[in-house]
């Protein structure tokens, strides 16, 4: 029996609490919703007070990817590659109608019908563009989900294949 079995619930609580209040964000801003993301990180709304550090140096230092704006088919491989570079546990917020479902451009030949077609999404924030308060609500919703995580020791279930996989997969 490992440490997770002996001290399971208290350790899980502490690890989830730490993850919940130290989210490093990788912002993948593609259109007008990215401006609202920036507004949410400024002094008036200040999501740093929620334990969210707004700008990670890159995907390898990020816990949370916020995709905001229209996801085109041309950008889809880049989003997938950057998501794959993020370490576990990783979370995604889809911010705005365009990243949720294609928005007003849903019927365009070159628009992906939502970022969830490419990567798993934890929280959807609706709006066109959503207000900064909506992003704050999305962050609080994600933090509540993180606090309830129960899968594996430390909230992450890893298999041997994921530990030996290369950092970046080559595009086909």
TrEMBL record:
EC number annotated for this UniProt entry: 7.1.1.-
Designated name of the protein: NADH-quinone oxidoreductase subunit B
Subunit and interaction comment: NDH-1 is composed of 14 different subunits. Subunits NuoB, C, D, E, F, and G constitute the peripheral sector of the complex.
Domain NADH:ubiquinone oxidoreductase-like 20kDa subunit: 32-141
Pfam family, one: Oxidored_q6
Group of enzyme by EC: translocase
An annotated Gene Ontology molecular function: iron ion binding
GO BP terms: aerobic respiration; electron transport coupled proton transport
Compartments where found: Cell membrane
């Amino acid at each position: 029996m490992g440490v997770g079995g002996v001290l399971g619930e208290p350790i899980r609580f502490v690890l989830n609490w730490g993850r919940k209040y130290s989210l490093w964000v990788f912002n993948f801003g593609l259109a007008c919703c990215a401006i609202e993301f920036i507004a949410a990180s400024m002094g008036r709304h200040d999501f740093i007070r929620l334990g969210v550090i707004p700008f990670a140096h890159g995907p390898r230092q990020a816990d949370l990817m916020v995709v905001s704006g229209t996801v085109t088919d041309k950008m889809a491989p880049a989003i997938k590659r950057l998501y794959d570079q993020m370490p576990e546990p990783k979370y995604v917020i889809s911010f705005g109608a365009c990243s949720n479902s294609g928005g007003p451009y849903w019927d365009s030949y070159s628009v992906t019908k939502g970022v969830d077609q490419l990567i798993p999404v934890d929280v959807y924030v609706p709006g066109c563009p959503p207000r900064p308060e909506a992003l704050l609500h999305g962050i609080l919703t994600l933090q509540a989900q993180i606090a309830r995580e129960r899968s594996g020791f430390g909230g992450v279930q890893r298999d041997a294949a994921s530990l030996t996989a290369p950092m970046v997969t080559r595009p086909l």
